[in-house]
Amino acid sequence: MANPILNLQDFETAAQKRLPQCIFGFIQGGAEDEVSVKNNREAFNRYKLLPRVMVDTTMRSTQIETFAHLWNAPFGIAPMGAMAVAVPDADRILAGAAAQANIPFVLSGASLRRMEDVMQVNQSAWFQAYLTAQVEDNLKLIERVGNSGFRTLIITADVAVGANRENDLRNGYTSPLRPSFKLLADGLSHPNWMINTFIRPMLADGIPRFENFGGEPIPMLSRAGLRLHRRDNFNWESLKHIRQVWKHKLLLKGILDPEDVVRAREIGLDGVIASNHGGRQLDCTIAPLDMLAEMTQAAGAMPVMMDSGVRRGTDVLKALALGARHVFIGRPFLYAAVVGGQSGVAKAIELLQAEIHRDMALLGAVDFSGLNSRIRKI
Known about the structure:
CATH superfamily: Aldolase class I
Distance between the termini: 40 Å
Strand order of the largest sheet: 4-13-12-11-10-7-6-5
Number of strands: 14
Oligomer: single chain
Number of domains: 1
CATH class: Alpha Beta
Structural class: alpha/beta
Order of helices and strands: HHHEEEEHEHEHEHHHEEHEHEHEHEHE
CATH topology: TIM Barrel
Shape: globular
């Protein structure tokens, strides 16, 4: 009898059996020694919740308002690139599940599905962009994002250069994927993935492409490799220009230093997302959770959100208690899509929301206000 799916971690265990090692390793792994990946989880253990008892919580609610939208839960689905290597049409699957559950979904600029197609299933979706030094490409992309109907744009700041992901290289994963005997053998060892995720979609639609960069689409499967997108000279002046051009909600993702929060606020951004890219960029970084209190103090009225390492309802509550307005989760929802498609993602959302609802009662909280008095760092 298969093990039941009871929480987000169970989806990872089940997905590992369904995916080739190179694909699973790409999703799960981080940079270099993966210290940041481990530290993101360990950070949550450094904070303890202080419950209050004998509180009538029968009217408690997990709803929260962010950017004038009343969401059903204080968490959303983080942007993840190249998800189609794990699940065909993964972007639309996750976007559709998020729309049905009324939680935020962020489409990655490194997705393999056109942004216009994703908006068809989720008109509340947000878009995350990787901007380069190419001003013309940036302006072209931003215009396209707006014309597609997106009203929240997130600029990712922590990918100035590509990360050193040694485990990907050992597993035979590259971006784009380069044909090799190792990749072929890995795929053949998982025939369901090979047929349903690789062969059938390619026969139906051709080679998947990175559709949402500023320039021309880039094939996912290539011997040449991804063309260089220089981002190491994208700076605050560049961001000021984007603020002038983009007239809707604009957020900066991938920052940890409170001084960067101040600069974002002074430029006129609408929010920031504390993140170390799930440990996938610079190794040995401080966990976003450990910086939340300082960042929210520096932000003033500007909302601070976070991602990286969230796996439990108590994790979400800890982040909110430290000042986060909303929390984003990536890998577990992709694993849920691998295991059960859109219904699997719906189940993952339901499980996490149920944990939060239950934990609120045990914590003695009717809503998310006042949680800052319910947490201690030990």
